[in-house]
Amino acid sequence: MAVNKLIWVGLTCCLTALLIQVFPDAAFRMGAEVKASWMVFSFGLFLIVIATFMNGRGHHRD
Length: 62
Hints:
The chain is mostly helical.
C-alpha cells in the first residue's frame, strides 16, 4: 500500500475513534462499541508510524 494511503487511513481511524469518544451516545445508538474505539485509535497510530518508517526508508510507491 502506498505511504500516502497508509497515512490517510491512519488519520481516518484516529479521527473516527476520537469522534466516538466525544459523542458516545450517538455512537452507541449507531452500534459502535465505545470501549473498542481505543483499539481503532491505536491501529491508526500504528499505520501512521509504519508509513513514517516506510517514507524514511525510501518506499515511495503510489
